[in-house]
Amino acid sequence: MSFILDPRRRHQPFLLLQSSTAQSGIGILRQVIGNTKGHALLFCLLHPSLLSLKAPNVETYDLLGNVPGYNSNYVDPRHRIRAAIENASSGPLDFILDSVDVLLSDIGSVAETYKFLLELMNLIRARPSASRLVIHAVSPSPLLPLLSQPAFSPSLTHVISHPSSLLVHLSTEYLTLPPPLSTEAKFWGIFLPISERGEETERLIFGTDGEGTGDNDELVIEVILRGDGEGLRRRGVDRTLQGWSITRGLRPLSDLNTLRSLWSRTVVEPTVADPTQNVPFNLNLTASQQNSRAQVPLPYVHEGKPATSVSAAIFYDPDSADDLDDEDPDEDLDI
After folding, report:
1. Gap between the Cα atoms of 169 and 177, Å rounded
2. Cβ(104)–Cβ(143) under 8 Å?
3. Which of 20, 153, 213, 236 is the most buried (most CB within 10 A)?
4. Which of the four pLDDT bands, split at 50, 70 and 90, describes residue 229?
5. Would you say 167 and 161 are in contact if contact means Cβ atoms under 8 Å apart?
6. What percentage of the chain carries pLDDT values higher than 90?
7. Cβ atoms 260, 254 nearer than 8 A
């Protein structure tokens, strides 16, 4: 799973990092920037901490103060971004944007922002060397459903950050542990609706009994993989859960300190009560009784005749009180 840091190892030209108010994924973005192999263009619109990252191959653009209506020297960021990509050297290029939601706020239109990002995606794909587009978004964002569609990029690595306390909550309230402690179908059937709504996660973190903001060192990441890159599209989508530690990197969930207690739990599945228990008589048959029952002939009317020779018919025995007058009772009506 180290391709999260360098998606080009799987020929993935698009990496979408998704944070939320309950759990930030900025630590993952910092590691992505730090592990960039070729030339990188970093456009910083949200997190000033990214400006402190010093790497000889990373060219940083500080757009934190470029705010429309507040800066007299405001320049449309699209012009600077487009020019930076077009003038970049022909080698491998990582274009990193933090964050797309601030860009949307500056442009003021979801349609125009999506159109511009699609233009960037096409510029990245048209480059002769393996390059990638890295976008950081904070949910809820109107751009996330658009950016995750195959129409934007058939190949996708989508990394969603979740607080580890969400899995603890699911194990306590829903008796559902992460795979392999629970089945995939059961876990994802409960996890996805809750995580996609977001309200329950935020209430868990910020409510009166919440644990505060998401852990800055350990978090849970949901990794969605689609396509093999280079314009090819796979039939399915791979979805997995992994642990992430800022100090230790990508880890199994069982290695996270905040989740180790889950692996020591045993969830007792509810059992269905046997209706034959605690009754004053026996409802079960012995082997000889089952033999005798199987040998009882059934009272079929046409027993012994082949099924193909039996035509459908209704057999009726008239009752003594039945009126079988053949005359039509309505023959005097002119119909």
Report:
1. 10
2. yes
3. 153
4. very low
5. no
6. 25
7. yes
Look up residue 253 and give its two tokens: 């969930």
- Among left, alpha and beta (phi > 0; psi -120 to 50; other), residue 229 is left
pLDDT at 241: 92
- CA 135 – CA 14 distance, rounded (Å): 8
- Which residue is listed with tokens 């751009």? 143
Give 122's pLDDT tier (boundaries 50, 70, 90): very high
Helix (H) or strand (E) run with residue 242 in it: strand 237-245
CA distance 171 to 167: 6
Please count the residues of the chain.
335
| 274: its two tokens | 């046997």
188-197 long-range contacts (CB < 8 A, ≥24 apart) are: 188/239, 194/166, 194/170, 195/160, 195/162, 195/166, 195/222
Q: CA 334, CA 57: separation in Å to the nearest integer? A: 100
Delimit the domains of the chain by residue range: 9-264
What tokens were used for 61?
């653009």
Region 97-112: mean pLDDT is: 93
CB-based contacts of 293, cutoff 8 Å, min separation 6: 285
Options 3.40.50, 2.40.128, 3.40.1000, 3.40.30; CATH for 9-264 is 3.40.50
Q: Report residue 294: phi and psi, to 5°.
A: -70, -20
Of all helices (H) and strands (E), which one includes residue 190? helix 184-197
Question: What are the φ/ψ torsions at residue 320 (nearest 5 degrees)?
Answer: -65, -25
Query: Position of tokens 């034959």?
Result: 276
8 A C-beta contact, residue 60 and residue 48: no
State residue 57 phi and psi, 5-degree precision.
-95, 5
pTM here?
0.73
Helix, strand, or coil (residue 298): coil
